[in-house]
Amino acid sequence: MIEAEFPICGQGRCRVSVSRFYQLLFCISLLPGCWLAMMGLHELGHVLGGLLTGGTVSRVVLHPLAISRTDLSANPYPAVVVWAGPILGVVVPLVVLWIVHKRGWSQVKLVQFFAGFCLIANGAYIAGGALEGIGDCGVMLQTGTPLWIMWGFGLLTVPAGFWLWHRLGALRDWWRNPERISEQSAWSLFLAVVGMIVLLVCFSTR
After folding, report:
1. Distance CA 156, CA 137 (A)
2. For residue 36, how far is the Cα from the chain centroid?
3. pLDDT of residue 18 exceeding 50
4. Mean of the per-residue pLDDT values for the chain?
5. Dist CA 18 CA 187 (whole Å)
6. Could you give the CA distance from residue 197 to residue 85 in angstroms, rounded to a whole number?
7. pTM of structure
């Protein structure tokens, strides 16, 4: 009777605890992974913008402990280069999301979260830094971009990002169902992010 009433590890509770661990591991990996991938796409836009307009890229900073940036030793069209970063940074995730959705791949929700993250991050960066001329915004102002365009970019992208997140369902429901995250998904994402961080630390300057 004692064993029946007090099992060594209640099977239901054990399953929930294990599932919760993988859910937390997935969450811990997801946000830094999205941040690093978002910065990479943003800088890729600057690099492509520079190369396509005849510029010369001298350095790309993508260190996990630094704000990413792309330095050009020759930059004939700085207005194009500076806008290529946030534009590519929101367009590429949306295109990838569309492809994944059309093909019905199982990773669609993960890609949708990342796309929303990129829309919010890039939009908030441009709209929020417009008045103070922070980072790219300073170059945009110097090259003649009006404030209303920068704010308009944010007003388009940030709500769109939250809309994508909203369509994923309620966070509370996701948290109450940890079994939705498989062991394979959690470990795969964690190892991918760790590998990305190691590579960036080894090969990117600060």
Report:
1. 17
2. 7
3. yes
4. 89
5. 13
6. 21
7. 0.87
Give the confidence band of 8 by pLDDT, cuts at 50, 70, 90. very low
Q: Residue 163: pLDDT band by 50, 70, 90 thresholds?
A: very high
Q: Smallest Cα–Cα separation from 39: which of 136, 167, 141, 165?
A: 136
Residues in the chain: 206
- CB-based contacts of 28, cutoff 8 Å, min separation 6: 190
Q: How far apart are CA 139 and CA 126, in angstroms?
A: 11
Distance CA 80, CA 77 (A): 6
Contact of 157 with 90, CB cutoff 8 Å: yes
In this prediction, residue 40 has a pLDDT band, given cuts at 50, 70 and 90, of very high
Among residues 192, 99, 177, which one has the least CA distance to residue 168?
Answer: 177
- Amino acid identity for residue 138 in this structure: G
**Does residue 97 contact residue 111 with C-beta atoms inside 8 Å?**
yes
pLDDT for residue 2:
36
Task: Indicate the domain borders of the chain.
Answer: 31-193
Burial 46-83 (b: 16+ CB within 10 A, else e): bbebbeebebebeebbbbbeeebbbebeebebbbbbbb
Q: Annotate 40-83 with DSSP letters as a single string.
A: HHHHHHHHHHHHHTT-EEEEEE--TTS--EEEEEE-S-HHHHHH
